[in-house]
Amino acid sequence: MQMIEDGLLDEARNLYHLRHLNALNTVGYKELFAHFDGTIDLNEAIRQIQSNTRRYCRKQLTWFKRDTDILWFQPTQYEDIIQQIIQFKQSFA
Q1: Euclidean distance between CA atoms 31 and 28, whole angstroms
Q2: Alpha helices per DSSP H over 16-77
Q3: 36 with 12: CB under 8 angstroms?
Q4: pLDDT in tens, 33-71
Q5: What distance in Å separates the CA atoms of residue 52 and residue 3, rounded to the nearest whole number?
Q6: Which of 13, 60, 73, 85 could form a disulfide linkage to 77, CB 3.0–4.6 angstroms apart?
């Protein structure tokens, strides 16, 4: 898992003493904190992180799809993106 390879385990270990903070009750940290507490092993923590990340992504996509004001672009639509930014800026001028 890329997040683990990129240092999430060490990052969570360094923040473990702050685990009571609501800001750290997020996907990745809460599963690793449970691992540090000894309630699950590392493989289970990683499995839960993967599962909870997918669930969080689905919720975000559902929320975004309901907002009709959001404009979706492909990264290759550079000119369309620039044009939209210009129009948006002009609407506040």
Answers
A1: 6
A2: 29-37, 42-66
A3: yes
A4: 999 999 999 999 999 999 999 999 999 999 999 999 899
A5: 13
A6: 73
pLDDT at 93 over 90: no
Q: CA gyration radius for the chain?
A: 19
- Residue 23: both structure tokens together: 């800001």
Distance, in Å, from the CA atom of 10 to the CA atom of 22, rounded to the nearest integer, reads: 19
CA–CA distance, 21 with 61 (Å, rounded to integer): 27
In this structure, the number of other CB atoms found within 10 A of the CB of residue 63 comes to 10
Q: pTM for this structure?
A: 0.74
Tell me whether residue 31 is exposed, middle or buried, using C-beta atoms within 10 angstroms of its C-beta: 0 to 12, 13 to 18, 19 or more: buried
Q: Are 12 and 32 in contact (CB under 8 A)?
A: yes
